[in-house]
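User: Could you check the structure of this?
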Amino acid sequence: MDRNKEILKFCPNFYKIIDFTPYEDDKISDKLIKLYQKYIFKIDVNNPEDVESVKRLDKVISKYIDDYMFRKEMQKQILTIKVQRDAKDLLKEIIKSILKIFDNYEEYTTRVIYISRWI
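Assistant: Sure, the predicted structure tokens are below.
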């Protein structure tokens, strides 16, 4: 099987993400989509850690496209990403930071709902 087709099996939102057209002055969305494309086609399909990160990245970028509040938060947080100078794989470090931003967003925006019992 072709390597790219095999990678696309892990990315159900690929075409939705690629077809997304951001606003003219939105440079961050354009760069984020290019990072997504570059990263998913660079991974090793035999490495389960890479496959899992691609699945998560696909979910995160899809959420970025669908959720306006998350998009604004991501655009604000992505400007603060810092990568160490001695990083071996710069792209992988940036993707890890993006996934961390998503995890923080999910953690702080998800409300805990308690079910009360009436006596």
